[in-house]
């Protein structure tokens, strides 16, 4: 039988990449510096694989064996349009280089991962006019990897708008594993066109197919028994909406609301297309989404619950969340959508790796 594929999970958070990879994979090592996330990881997967601490303080000796895959969902704030766009030199996103020096050291020991996935916000493609993405591709090329990028929105799988870039790099790309994909978006193609010729020569157009049409919407993931706000609080929320947004709340509609600061002051903006907005870490009141339901001529409102956030990330009902809502939403809001990882594993990573993976003799 085939041996399990192995992986390192950097910036592991609550282990959502691990869940998405599934039972055909075995974790060799996981790392995160956030105590809440590490505690959540341990609650769901045990103590054996997770290491709590700064990635810069790790050495190659901490990493056992040679993994088939290194997964890195490095901090995204400096690439995000919501952040300062500091790029790879930014304080948070520079954690990427703490990870990358380990890859360089492993390569020097002839045990670099066969494949790498780097997941981040789509701002990675355009940060500093594309120079950060070029620097990333150049770093991959220097260590012997060819690479390509896919832009995948979690909305293909769960009712949450969450576009992310997945840079997939391989030291041994399979011949013929190339082709069209709906995830070769205009942003990905533009990022490719900005690369110099020598990096374009290492580019791979990974042929990941589209999933079946999603059959759930925001209403389907709502939790029974949640506590609704007072009518006064709901009226205040509605007062922050423009007439166009209030008009979206037709009878029978279910929506998700963010509070945003606009030129004319604070505004509440609602979407009623069956999707939640992108989950965020709850660092302030405006970052936590509000659920609104219009029925029988009235509108009710309440905050999104942690379990609803977990469902939007594709986490199973058995997944253990932190007890406090803020901590739970911090874990899920900083994660990667589980079904996106599963789709990527099934349709690219496993085909990419399995032909060269040695087999284990059947007992």
How do the strands and helices of this protein lay out in sequence?
Layout: E1 5-10, H1 16-21, E2 25-32, H2 35-45, E3 50-52, E4 69-72, H3 95-108, E5 115-120, H4 131-142, E6 146-153, E7 163-170, H5 186-194, H6 197-200, H7 231-239, H8 243-246, E8 254-262, E9 265-271, E10 290-295, E11 298-303, H9 306-312, H10 325-333, H11 338-354
Parallel strand pairs: 1-2, 1-4, 2-3, 4-5
Antiparallel strand pairs: 5-7, 6-7, 8-9, 8-10, 10-11
Helix pairs in contact: 9-10
Query: Which architecture of the largest domain per CATH?
Result: 3-Layer(aba) Sandwich
pLDDT average, as an integer? 90
The portion of residues forming beta strands comes to 15-25%
Count of distinct structural domains: 2
Note the total helix count: 11
Structural class by helix and strand composition? alpha/beta
What would the CATH topology of the largest domain be? Answer: Rossmann fold
Shape: globular
Largest sheet: 7 strands, mixed
For this structure, what is the CATH class of the largest domain?
A: Alpha Beta
Gyration radius, in Å: 21 Å
Oligomer: single chain
The percentage helix is: 25-40%
CATH superfamily of the largest domain, by name, is Vaccinia Virus protein VP39
Low-confidence stretches: 78-85, 357-363
Give an overview in words.
The longest helix has 17 residues, at 338-354. Strand 4, helix 3 and strand 5 (115-120) form a beta-alpha-beta unit. 28% of the residues lie in helices and 20% in strands. It has helices at 16-21, 35-45, 95-108, 131-142, 186-194, 197-200, 231-239, 243-246, 306-312, 325-333, 338-354, and strands at 5-10, 25-32, 50-52, 69-72, 115-120, 146-153, 163-170, 254-262, 265-271, 290-295, 298-303. The strands form two sheets. A seven-stranded mixed β-sheet has the order 3-2-1-4-5-7-6, with helices on both faces. A four-stranded antiparallel β-sheet has the order 9-8-10-11, with helices on one face. It is globular. Residues 78-85 and 357-363 have low confidence and may be disordered. Helix 9 packs parallel to helix 10 (325-333). The termini are close together. The protein folds into two domains: 5-212 and 317-322 and 328-354, 3-Layer(aba) Sandwich (Rossmann fold); 224-304, no CATH class. It is built from eleven helices and eleven strands. The protein is an alpha/beta fold and 363 residues long.
